[in-house]
Amino acid sequence: MNENWHQQLKSQHRDQLLESGQMLFLRHGLHQVKIKDVCEEANLSRVTFYKHFHSLDELLLTIQMQLVETLTLSVSQAANPVVSGYEQLESMLHAWVHFSKLHPDHIRFIQLFDINFEAYHFQPDLRDTYEHFIRVGKEKHFLLNALTTGIADGSIQNATPPLKLAQFIFTVMMGMLQKMVTHSSHDLHPLDHQMSEQLVDMLLQYASSENTGHQKSSS
User: Fold this and answer.
1) What is the pLDDT of residues 69-88, one digit of tens each?
2) Fold observed for domain 55-207
3) Least enclosed by CB within 10 Å: which of 7, 41, 196, 199?
């Protein structure tokens, strides 16, 4: 019981540091935040900080990777494996928009990190860690299964190789959603909701553009 309590407390402290770091980086930018700021925001000591992270840069990378994983997992779970690949992709894209409406700060942080990554002076080992994370994510893309299923069942007939198509859809979706969530601090503007639906329709049409006999799902 005592060991379990200590483990729960350790996990709680780590989450507090991640949440505080995310909020401060978004508020002040990646270069203005110090370890003492994160500790004060989390109401934890520097000793506790160093029990979880070797540096502020490690905290920053951990936040980014956790947010990317949370986003991709949430979108992936929207796919129903018993329906066509097109319908899986459709559900995932709508889930992506919904996630962005519920968690706009996730999207904002990913954008902030991506913009600054190349110019940020990470230690080589940390940069290698993140580049490996991104490389694996691209090679095992979370949209890939839906696209390959769609190609196999005929509901997706775009001539682009599925991995490149997945990366294209990711780039377009994130680019548009990042632009839209900057309009408001809390949610997507109603006009942006309409734009996001149009974006989803456009990407779905593009993915199945060579399939003249395909019928969209009624959802």
Assistant:
1) 999 999 999 999 999 999 99
2) Tetracycline Repressor; domain 2 (1.10.357)
3) 7
